Amino acid sequence: MRWMLLKDLQILRRSKLLVGLLVVYPVAIALLIGFSLSSGPEKPSLAFLNQIPATQNTINFGDEKIDVKVYTDKLFDAVDRIDVENREQALEKVRTGEALAALIIPSDFVMKLSNGGFNSATVEVVYNGEALQQSFVESTVQSKLALADAALARQINKVASGYIKVITTGGEINALGQTFKLLGLVESKKLLDDTLQDASPQIARRLEPLQNFADIGVANIGRFNDVLNTVERPVEVDETVVSGRRTPLDTFAVALAVTVSLMFVCVLLASGLLALEREENTFSRLARGLVPGGWLLAGKVVLAAACAFVVTLVMLLGISAFVPLDYGRVALWILAIAASGIAFATLGVAIGSLAREVRAASLLALMLALPLAFLALVPSGGVSPVLYDVIQVISALFPFKPALDAINNAINAADASMLVALAHLAALTIAFGGAAYWGLRRFASA
Amino acid sequence: MSVDAATAAPALTVQGISKSFGERRAVRDVSFEIARGELVAIIGPNGAGKTTLLSILAGIQQSDEGSVAQPDGTTARIGWVPQQTAIYGKLTVAQNLRLFAKLEKVSDPEATVERMLDQTGLGERADEELGRLSGGNRQRVNIAVGLLADPPVLLLDEPSGALDPRQRERLWGFITALTQRGTAVIFATHDIAEAERHADRVLVLADGELLFDDAPAELKRIAQADDEHDLEQAFVGFLRDRGH
């Protein structure tokens, strides 16, 4: 096997394009992923037309004033704002692509907010119709609108809480430009209780419902603010992760990139190296007992896995310059990448044993590897339960899913599922190794 | 033939070889012997079983029945030169020879490589990538790889198929020199004239069956071809008379 390994290395060394690709690939991918994850998303450009007259930028709630600018500014911390003069200009900016969308705040916005209640005030958003861009800007604008709504609801809640306090404990209230003094529910109840002590039974019986109302009101004063808080924020999210730990998206993206790269390098290299023996007709010489079939396969697997191991480890170290990774877990990285690499390379030689030339082997490897990677990423709930079960079974028959599990575990946090993934990879290595050996013997005797 | 085939011990004895692929019988009960230094041509129409027979003799395929035996005490592997060059295009001439010498476990790989470079006349091109050589030179390296272990028997499948006349002449000079040193050579060919010119004996295969095993002149005699007719006409007539 030593001479065959050396021979394959000599061939690789002379394949300058392939070697160049193996060197450039991990560096390029590491830089791309690193910059993508560390720079964050670009702000979408948004044309903005504010039709509210300058004199009506404030909403009055009793003696509280809310500045609409505070509300609209909430929208612009996540977008690049392009101010326009009128609706036509706004539409033109969107049409020409200068802005991904336009936000138009109509002139009656403040009036509707003040008079018609919160839900009746509307803003207009115009999109350019390109699905991906629209989706991006739509989600950005809608999330910011939700934040602005929540801020406005807090302001209204604050005003309402002040009113409730005055109604409860008494005080002054401004309405319709005049100041009123209120006795308050607590004082009213005391006054009623004192009055009823000296009242005749007939009057006491007639005022009994009023006394009950005051009792209930005073007893439930504390609930008023709770109700308002519920209106402001009706649903809170309590997050629980059923299995494993919550994986940060950035480090999951790193694990995914590493797994995909490992798969491509291993599968393409191993299948190509084995198919080359048939393309060059050398397999007929080797099959005469010069190199036993098992050793021939093992040599290709070791070389492909070793090359891919170096490539992905360099890539991982490169990415760690941008995304903080825990270097204390390097031993687990090595274990997961090595086990995954061997499983992928064994799949590669199984593919290579079916093909008579390198191009056919590469095409077959790509046609098999790409859909399997996509399938393994389909989330539960993304498709019907039956289809999801079928996808799970298919994914379990190939190394991508367990490799992703193992590498994700190694990078993020190892638990028992990493051992399961490694055992899964070992089983697939044996199965594909057997398939490759069978394919090789079948060719030799054909 | 430089070594007296009649007196020499057989270099290879083939006894009752048969091979089937599914329902099709590719080789049927073929038996023959070859002496040291003898040059034997296997001729036959397409699909006659020539390549299958050679690949069984080379040990690439297992026969269903029969045996291939070398004289007692001979452990050397039979040399094998496939129809298409079976060497690595990305390696140099010397690297190819060195790799196969090591895989053949020859006692002194470097000396063997030097010897083969000398014999093939490719010493000056030892460091050239094989893919950059002409078809004729690649075939010389292909044959040289088959000879690395100094085999007593060499099998060649269509050795001159891709060569021009000048390269072909050099190739046959090289093969003749091998037989003069005692190597038994069996080659399969479509070129009947080549078989007539170089072979000591011809084996005629048709539908996997060995129909004839003797000198080319005897084939002409049996086919009742006169001296003006060449072996190709005699061969065609011979096959036609036997229903092929």
From TrEMBL, chain B:
The keyword rRNA-binding does not apply. Keywords: Antibiotic resistance, ATP-binding, Nucleotide-binding, Transport. Residues 12-232 form the ABC transporter domain. GO terms for molecular function: ATP binding; ATP hydrolysis activity. One of its GO terms (biological process) is response to antibiotic. GO terms for cellular component: plasma membrane. Coiled coil: none annotated. CDD domains: ABC_DR_subfamily_A (cd03230). It is a peripheral membrane protein. It is found in: Cell membrane. InterPro entries: AAA+_ATPase (IPR003593), ABC_transporter-like_ATP-bd (IPR003439), ABC_transporter-like_CS (IPR017871), ABC_transporter_ATP-binding (IPR050763), P-loop_NTPase (IPR027417). The keyword Transcription does not apply. Belongs to the ABC transporter superfamily. This is ABC transporter ATP-binding protein.
